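== Polypeptide entry ==
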Amino acid sequence: MIFVDTHETRSRLPVALNKMGVKTEFIPLEVGDYVVTGPSMDVCAELKSVSDYLLSIQNNRLNQELLNMSTAYKKSLLIVHGYISQGLEHRKIKRSTYFHYLAGCIIHESDEGFHGSVSVINVDTVYDAACLLKTIHDKVYNDDIKRRPDAKRYKIKDNDMKLFTIQSLPNVGEKRGELLKNKFKTIKNLVNASEEELLEIDGIGKKISGFLYKYFNEE
């Protein structure tokens, strides 16, 4: 689910998300334009055109917006759509000034709350922004949010390797991977499981069990 601020009703981005199969709901948001929700993390996103982004730098509105996001959420995104070079030329902003503010966006954190981070991402179009939010939504929804060590650099136990393999399956992620590993013990047992056996696990619904059975058995 992605919650969308009511001020975004005229934006093309929610329409693009819906066409991509992402469920959205308009509600008044105190912080940000979009909030991606998942089992263990929410991600806040602010969407700006290049023109609005550079204007918010000039009038110093951006600092407060970033502070609000980093205080309210552990992970936040500032998604800027459009061409930066054209915007800088149009508003007569020096590149050194732009990079000074860009570095501040990335490095600074709030003095209270979660001390969250804000990632600044520039994309060409609103459609690109929708693709990015959909991908983040899928990862957050599936609880696929942990960085894992490179297997070549670390000695990993067999049980851990089995768990990592199961967690890397499409639509599984960390929590569902744990459930599947505890139930079936081995990857072979999991691959040979019936759809009914998969459905017996709390937390593995009909949609996921059907997908996994088809994934393992389709030629």
